[in-house]
Amino acid sequence: MVAPPSNSHKAILNIRACLGCGDCIEICPTKAIPELLIGLYSHLLEIDKSKCNGCSECVSICPHNAIKLVEL
Ligand code: SF4
Ligand code: SF4
Fold first, then answer.
1. Does residue 34 lie within any of the structural domains?
2. Which of the chain's termini has less CB crowding within 10 Å, N or C?
3. Is the pLDDT of residue 6 over 70?
4. How many domains does the chain have?
5. In terms of residue numbers, what domain contains 57?
6. Which ligand is the nearest neighbour of the Cα of 50?
7. Does residue 55 lie in a domain region?
8. Is the shortest distance between the CB of 67 and ligand 2 below 6 Å?
9. Quick one: pLDDT at residue 67?
C-alpha cells in the first residue's frame, strides 16, 4: 500500500541492489529519479531529494527492495 506524500521522508537508493529495470523511473510522479544510459544498460543516479515528495511509489514497485524511505 502506498503511503500519502510526506515531505519529511525522502527516498534513498541502494545502487548495489538495483538491477536497472527502470520501473521506479516510470512511476515517480515528480521525476526525482535520474537515469544514466550507457549503451543498452541503464544506471540509476542518486535520487534528487529536492524533487522527492516521499510518496513511496518507487518503494512499492521496486522488485529488488533497492529503495527505502528515510525520515529527514
Ligand atoms: S518517493 Fe515518490 S517522489 Fe520520491 S523518488 Fe519515490 S516515487 Fe519519486
Ligand atoms: S525499480 Fe528497483 S531495480 Fe528497478 S530501476 Fe528502480 S531501484 Fe532499480
1. yes
2. N
3. no
4. 1
5. 9-71
6. 1
7. yes
8. yes
9. 95
Residue 32 CB–ligand 2 contact under 6 Å: no
Would 31 be classed as within a structural domain? Answer: yes
52 part of a folded domain:
yes
CA 13 to chain centre: 6
Residues in Cβ contact with 54 at an 8 Å cutoff, skipping those fewer than 6 apart:
3, 5, 6, 7, 8, 9, 10, 11, 69
What would the pLDDT profile of 37-50 be if each residue is shown by its tens digit?
Answer: 656 666 777 899 99
CB atoms within 10 A of CB 27: 15
SS3 content of the chain, % helix, strand, coil (to 5): 15, 25, 60
Q: Does pLDDT of 2 surpass 60?
A: no
Q: Which of 15, 26, 44 to mutate to test the pocket of ligand 2 (most atoms within 8 A of CB)?
A: 44
pTM for the structure as a whole:
0.86
Name the closest-CA residue to atom 3, ligand 2: 18
